[in-house]
Amino acid sequence: MSRKTFLGGFLLVVLLIAGGGSYYASSHPDGLEHVAETTGFGHTAGDSAASDSPFAGYSTKGVDDARLSGGIAGVAGALVVLLLAGGLAWAVRRRGGRPDDQVDETTAGQSDEHAGERRVDSPSEA
Amino acid sequence: MHVPDGFLDAPTSLGTGVVAAVGVAVALRGARKELDDRTAPMAGLVATFVFAGQMMNFPVGAGTSGHLLGGALAAVLVGPWTAVLCISVVLLVQALFMADGGITALGTNVTLMALVGVAVGWLVFVGARAVLPKRLSSIAPAAAIGALVSVPAAAVVFTLLFAVGGTAPIAFGTVLAAMLTWHLAIGVGEAVITGLVVASVTAVRPDLVYGARPVLERRELEIRAGRPVGTPNPEAGA
Q1: What tens digit of pLDDT does each residue of A30-49 get?
Q2: What are the backbone angles phi and psi of residue A30, rounded to the nearest 5°?
Q3: Least CB-packed of B4, B24, B102, B105 within 10 Å?
Q4: Which ipTM did the prediction report?
């Protein structure tokens, strides 16, 4: 499987989970919430300052249908994470691809009929 | 495991905020060694997967649920330093846009899930990988073991923080017992999800699994050393 096919398939699976699968998630309190309630410190939880966000609580403000509301919030959140985490990773990465990535570019260049002319220029670029 | 505002007092939240900031700063330096043109897009996808995975609460009995923390999963797929960044971004987006986990508690949540979850998950994975046979098929079980331990470890650290700066006077042992019981059960779910995802990626593109690199490098060296040029490859078709 090519890297692009793999990454595209991975993204599709993630968006399906965030946009559709999450509707079927358990709505019970999670481990920490349960422990907080049963041992007696649940009442100390405060409202988040972000509780007015349009996607607060993984639902979309103004959308009544639960499936659609959760789906939009999930996909929107996933895309924000993709943008921020992908952008951050791209910004801190080591510059320059690995040799096996550059093979593709070289092959593409050779299939071009003007490849010979370009090759004359390339040493000065490097 | 997302801690809301109010569970911990201000000094403790400030303390975990400093720990989280230092941890993320160190991870920014460390991640440079793990990320290149090929793996950077993978890091973005892994963070997105953890975000989606954290929405999928699974029942663990008695009206309680758990969800993926993703520290071990991300560490095995993209490397521990990058994993700290991935989980931190997920927690930031959840706190700011989803109101999941408090904003003053962001440092606490980064400390618990991005630092403790990744560190414990990765170190236990490395230990398990060293003990298990040096094969590609050992990577997913080793990742599952790391995931299994990472969840109760984060639960224990929360309990310690609560003992120091909890805003309600609850006995340490009471909180510890309850946190450990539930998060051992959630750890089993974490292990199953982590094992399945790592096994799937390893089956398709083992070269994109950071934690599999020592096994892959070893395998390539063995093939080249054991077979003179021109003779049939004894491992072909295996």
Answers
A1: 999 999 999 999 989 988 88
A2: -80, 180
A3: B24
A4: 0.88
